[in-house]
Amino acid sequence: MPRTSATKYALLGLLSCSPSSGYAMKKFIDESIRYFWTENYGNIYPALSALEREGLAVKQRAQTSGRPDSNVFTITAKGEKELDKWLAEPCLPQLVRSELLLKLFFAGRLSRGKAAALLKAELAKHKELLERYKKTGACISEHGRGDKAYWLLTLDYGRRHSAMVCKWCEHSLSILEKKS
Amino acid sequence: MPRTSATKYALLGLLSCSPSSGYAMKKFIDESIRYFWTENYGNIYPALSALEREGLAVKQRAQTSGRPDSNVFTITAKGEKELDKWLAEPCLPQLVRSELLLKLFFAGRLSRGKAAALLKAELAKHKELLERYKKTGACISEHGRGDKAYWLLTLDYGRRHSAMVCKWCEHSLSILEKKS
DNA sequence: GCGCCCATGTAACTAGTTACATGATTCA
DNA sequence: TGAATCATGTAACTAGTTACATGGGCGC
Description:
The structure is a homodimer. By secondary structure, the first copy, chain A, is mainly alpha-helical. Chain A has 2 domains: 6-88, Winged helix-like DNA-binding domain superfamily/Winged helix DNA-binding domain (Arc Repressor Mutant, subunit A), CATH 1.10.10; 99-179. Chain A is 65% helix and 8% strand. Chain A is built from 7 helices and 3 strands. Chain A has a 3-stranded antiparallel sheet with strand order 1-3-2. In chain A, a hairpin with a 7-residue loop joins strand 2 and strand 3. At the A-B interface, helix 1, helix 4, helix 5, helix 6 and helix 7 of A face helix 1, helix 4, helix 5, helix 6 and helix 7 of B. Chain A binds a DNA duplex through helix 2 and helix 3.
């Protein structure tokens, strides 16, 4: 079974919040949900054309003073129906590929210092993420209109995930230090 | 910069433990490290040919009684060097795409029951994973030769991850229930 | 003979990334 | 005038999945 790319639904979801352009959606994704979703232009623009072709969104040329014109897309009733259908479907099993865990799995070949360096880099990354989540939380409380519960829920996941990784790294590093 | 596929290094890593065939490596991956790494035949066989072409592994035809012949690959000194170089390099930043979090982010459109169903499915999945990790832990203690510390470390990650997801699901479900 | 596991491989496909090209507007 | 940001798009690429084809050996 060919699983349709989720890009389509990510864009429909964003459009269900408010009409938007490809450029603006990319920006929103990078600034707000990058910790669990990414897109790139090479993906977005063709997907938007497809949405229009399928009648799930309509395009309008919009002019804003002081900026180039943009193509603003609005979700249609058909688009909302399609989105809701997808949202209610169970998630397809996702295969994981963690380069870090793969390296660590074979890290017996490395010196302790080099193995520790991998863990320290991961620890630093997630400490920084934890800092960023604090700001995101404040941002949602300010900007979010309507039901923020689910936004906070995904944010909570991010926080718990990074906190877990930090603890695991610290624990792993302490084990490495104890080693002969 | 084109990032070389990690499949190459995954296979080199496995070969650094012991000579093996593509089929056997696929089996090992599926049975032991599926929780953080996956491969499929369409990926493995071409990668093995490439390893041979680059002089990182050598192929030998092997016959086992009662089974079809197999191509057993052995890592070369050059292959080990290449592997060690890769292992010591910092991990490239990995982009995350979680279909579950994406759905949840837009779950304000769903009934509470449907949103809860997504979480319940995830909870069930990770409860089952936790069960499996127990067995894997025992398996490593028995079979693992040499330095098991790093194997246990990746397993510890899996356990912590699934435990975190379970807690997050339960917490999220309790919030959904409290909602008006 | 049939179904199952062993074993290898490829072709066609879907998905996702990167690099490039274009052009507007703003600000220093 | 040059750098930065806004804005759209495509072509070429890398990566990964699925489906298919083939054939040996084993047990029923």
